[in-house]
Amino acid sequence: QQQVKQSPQxxxxxxxxxxxxxxxxxxTAFDYFPWYQQFPGKGxxxxxxxxxxxxxxxxxxxxxxxxxxxxxxxxxxxxSQPGDSxxxxxxxxxxxxxxxxxxxxxxxxx
Amino acid sequence: KAGVxxxxxYLIKTRGQQVTLSCSPISGHRSVSWYQQTPGQGLQFLFExxxxxxxxxxxxxxxxxxxxxxNSRSEMNVSTLELGDSALYLCAxxxxxxxxxxxxxxxxxxx
Lengths: 110, 111
Hints:
The complex is a heterodimer of chains A (110) and B (111).
Chain A: E1 4-7, E2 10-14, E3 19-25, E4 33-38, E5 45-50, E6 56-59, E7 62-67, E8 72-77, E9 86-94, E10 97-100, E11 104-109
Parallel strand pairs in A: 2-11
Antiparallel strand pairs in A: 1-3, 3-8, 4-5, 4-9, 6-7, 7-8, 9-10, 9-11
Chain B: E1 5-7, E2 10-13, E3 19-24, E4 31-38, E5 42-50, E6 53-57, E7 64-68, E8 74-78, E9 87-94, E10 101-102, E11 106-110
Parallel strand pairs in B: 2-11
Antiparallel strand pairs in B: 1-3, 3-8, 4-5, 4-9, 5-6, 7-8, 9-10, 9-11
């Protein structure tokens, strides 16, 4: 029962470009939306998170955009670097439940 | 502050055996959650323990069980291993909120 749909499955971006990953959720009880970054052989690391009372949150080159009415949120990576190459997971949590998207494998080409 | 630690990091077992994985959360964190990560299914929630009590459970068979000790360390047990149990098992700790911190995982291979 997938409650968080993430796209695309994989993404290739040139160095300096913008990477955009999208997620959609179903459960309106969700009120916490984090993004995780995972490198091979490592566990996921919390990158940035947003609550639905704001439509955008920026931390350095990473920005979350949130559309409550559409039940969608996205991660934008500005000036993408080869070191950003990793798998990114979105998640949605609330009402004692947390669901993850299937992940997006990002490759940033030099 | 030390991060979440998981032991062992790698494990090879055969079908029918049982396995126990261990997780030590970040100091002060009372919640420990376990996830199974596979290429096809992504991150699947197994269960969460808070102050030694199972607070939430995912949709996994009874062969998967866990417990938490008074020092918040947690163990996960899988009995009667199947080939499909081969996965990366991740543990995440938190203060009881949704902000979770993951360990490096235990790579389990079932032959």
